Amino acid sequence: MALDLLPTTISNSPLGGLFNYDVLTQVIYYSNANATGNYQINFRGDSVTSLASVVPVGNTLRTLLFVQNGPTAYYLTSVTVDGFPATAIGWLKRLPEPGPSNNISSYEINITQTSAGVFTIF
User: Fold this and answer.
1) Which of 107, 90, 101, 98 is nearest to 19 (CA)?
2) DSSP 94
3) Count of domains observed in the chain
4) In the chain, where does DSSP find H-type helix?
5) Structural domain includes residue 78
6) pLDDT at residue 2, as a whole number
7) Which residue of 9, 13, 16, 98 pairs with 26 in a disulfide if CB–CB is 3.0 to 4.6 A?
8) Helix, strand, or coil here: 106?
């Protein structure tokens, strides 16, 4: 049986503010330090590569984000792709949504390029 291993980053850096999620480095990101504030996620290929050039039109990228919370529950407030807003559907339309105190917030974010440079996130 083949295992489906996914590139994962385990970080000791806390989230707070804008976080650039580089999908060429990781599909799963786990911040195991207590968040220091609410955070916004910008999905991109990496610092020099757009997500639009990585995910072909008509394809979907599934990502997972895990964020450690301390006594103060911080949470995801917005999601962008390549620095631009994307059409949010499902639970992402309800942002911001409080996270749990002294626990881990987990987010599955799917990103579909519906036409050139246009993304839907859910």
Assistant:
1) 107
2) G
3) 1
4) none
5) yes
6) 77
7) 9
8) strand
